[in-house]
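Trying the structure run again after the queue cleared.
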Amino acid sequence: EVQLVESGGGLVQPGGSLRLSCAASGSTFDDFAMAWVRQAPGKGLEWVSSVTYTGGSTYYAESVRGRFTISRVYVKNTVTLQMNSAKVEDTAVYYCNFRGNQNYWGQGTQVTVSS
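Done. Tokens:
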């Protein structure tokens, strides 16, 4: 059974940093693209960032570009999201998403940016 487990969420002050991780198990994901998607209170899903299956290309939403960094660690089937210069509007539940021949989602981790 494939499982994606996020961790690292929590409360951070505006301007602070947080690092999210998503660890997958139950299969190999070398040919999967990985992404982070978030959902703010009362809003729909918003794509945040993606990394290709080669790891050679990364993409960011305009709202997080220059502040967030996505990375993948192949041997650990893990994708991370380093969040710097956090803003109140970054408050959301963050989900990791692995896309290949199947589409997998984590359960989500809450990030709250507040003073």
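The radius of gyration is 13 Å. Worth checking whether this holds up in the mutant runs.
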